[in-house]
Amino acid sequence: MNASASLPASAPAARRGGGFGAVLPWLLLALLAAFPLIAPHFELEYYVGFVRRLLIVMIAATSLNFILGYGGMVALGHAGFLGVGAYTVVALVDAGFSSAWLAWGAALVVTAAFATLIGAVSLRTRGVYFIMITLAFAQMLYYLGVSLRTYGGDDGYGIYTPLSLGGWLDAQPNAFYWAVLAIAALIFALGSRLAVSRFGLALMGIRDNETRMAALGFPVFRLRLVAFAGAGAVAGLAGALLASHNGFVSPSMMHWTESAILIVMVVIGGMGNRWGGVIGVGLWLTLEEVLKMYTEYWHWPLGLLLIAIVFFAPRGLAALFGSKGERA
Question: What distance in Å separates the CA atoms of residue 117 and residue 85, rounded to the nearest whole number?
């Protein structure tokens, strides 16, 4: 029984890689690690925080890309998991805990539990019904956040004391940035490995032909549920990091529009491409930051960008620069 037998011929090619493409991620990692040390010399301190935010949103988009691009699960409620992770941090801070590692780890576990329960129900549906039920669950989480008066309700909750990374790290001004970078690098590496693993290949087979995979004896529901719960957990971790980054959490981060923007970013970058979420987030948020400096009507150029990509690069921008094997 071989999962790769039911997958596109391009899937095995994803294992090979090599050349400059294999070195480029390491070069980017080194540049990003050095950026906080270089930035003050060019008066770019503000952009250290901006890059940190980019990395956090890239983690969320990568988790969505895994179930959307590789699993074919169009979830219009992924931002709800960011909110669960963020409010887990809020609950711990409000209870008097100050360890960042405890808060982020708890966010990962709590969100995984929520995602498992939501996935157990949602994955019994298909097509537009799956889209709508994930949206419904996310909106339920949104209104739950609004109703939590203990944590600020609709006004949100301010985290005024930074979480502690422990020991000598608290004395390092860029420790949080490097922690986010390390977590992001780990998530990206794990996602790349999963995409070409037996689990990832089976997930792509289910996406392409669920009936055939079930006939071959694959536990279709279980595989989809594990992918959904894992992606939700990673999104929850991103939400926890975002709460620490912003020092503020509000229910608005769980609104369905935030989930839609995440999907747009993944579509722009390239669904099913391992760097699709990264490229989409980088382009979208960078253009948003630049356009806001020149006009209040920054939404319409981004809308035109999306339309142009749909027509001229339907597989996303990542497909224009990568080999065929890099996309599922």
Answer: 15
Burial of 1 (0-12, 13-18, 19+ CB in 10 A): exposed
Q: For the segment 234-257, what is each residue's pLDDT rounded down to a tens digit?
A: 999 999 999 999 999 999 999 999
pTM score = 0.90
Cβ atoms 278, 76 nearer than 8 A: no
Torsion of CA 306, 312, 315, 316, to 10 degrees: -50
Per-residue pLDDT tens over the stretch 187-214: 999 998 998 999 999 999 999 999 999 9
Neighbours of 199 (CB within 10 A): 17
Half-sphere exposure of 234 (CA within 13 A, CB side): 26
Nearest to 275 by CA among 314, 316, 241, 310: 316
